[in-house]
Amino acid sequence: MSSMRMASFIWEWIDLKNHERRGAEAVVKLLHDENKVVKIRPQKKYRAEELDRKIRKERTRTEARLMEKMKRFVNLPKITYVDEKNFTIEMELLDGKLVKELGETIDEVIQQVGEQVGKLHAAGVAHNDLTTSNMIWKDDEIFLIDFGLAARSKTEGFATDLKVLRECMVATHKTTEDTWQRFVEGYKSGNPEWELVLKRLEKVSSRGRYKVKGSSVK
Ligand SMILES: Nc1ncnc2c1ncn2[C@@H]1O[C@H](COP(=O)(O)OP(=O)(O)OP(=O)(O)O)[C@@H](O)[C@H]1O
Ligand SMILES: [Mg+2]
Fold it and tell me: Where in the chain do CATH 3.30.200.20 domains reside?
């Protein structure tokens, strides 16, 4: 894309509060009239400048590359433009609802979450920030977003994804074992290696202070 186009889409950003989302690291803005969003990683002043540029560039690159590769396997927003130098990714707007915003009513969607996560893992990639803030429910389907920390991985990485998600489900959505089992059903249908991962999840969960009381994987 030319710098003209780049400049024009910066000017077209709508700055109204509900058209802008701030995640931990990025700002995501709605691109006027185009059904697209722009995700940009602004400078973090607490990091040394050179290191900061390196991290932002690397995460932008990883996110764009992995999303491109994973689109055959899981539901993702289509990427339409990447500008590593400006730490920017332009992608399809998923005009749906963040799974986090479903609150205590995630039972209906959780099996599909499991299936999508299973497929991602079966394709050899761990998300590495698997919370319900990084999933969108649109037209009766689950889409995964936010691949800035994602990486090629194996059983340990996949089990850690599940641990993080299970903790998020309990803390944010007040879920019970029933809901977890629905997730597991979906996960099994997405990942043929599910048994290995669930076994490892039990090991990973019994380590350290994050153990989820009373939960077990059947
Ligand atoms: N394609 C999209 N369509 C609609 N909304 C999106 C899209 N991508 C991101 N969002 C919204 O913007 C928020 C922040 O995006 P994202 O999770 O990718 O950034 P982040 O958490 O800051 O990223 P990172 O951790 O990679 O720096 C999301 O929680 C979601 O609400
Ligand atoms: Mg996020």
Answer: 3-92
Name the one residue in this structure whose structure tokens are 């669930």. 198
Secondary-structure class of domain 3-92 per CATH: alpha beta
Strand order in the sheet with 20-22: 20-22, 27-31, 36-40, 88-92, 79-83
CA 55 to CA 63: how far, in whole Å? 12
Domain with CATH 1.10.510.10 in the chain: 97-210
CATH hierarchy code of domain 97-210: 1.10.510.10
Which ligand sits nearest to residue 25's alpha carbon? 1
What are 9-60's pLDDT values in tens digits? 443 443 434 567 777 788 888 876 678 999 999 999 999 999 999 999 999 9
**pTM: predicted TM-score of the whole model, two decimal places:** 0.87
pLDDT in tens, 145-182: 999 999 999 999 999 999 999 999 999 999 999 999 99
Q: How far is the CA of 216 from the centre of ligand 1 (A)?
A: 31
User: Is 139 one of the catalytic residues?
Assistant: no
Q: Is 67 in the pocket of ligand 1 (CB under 6 A)?
A: no
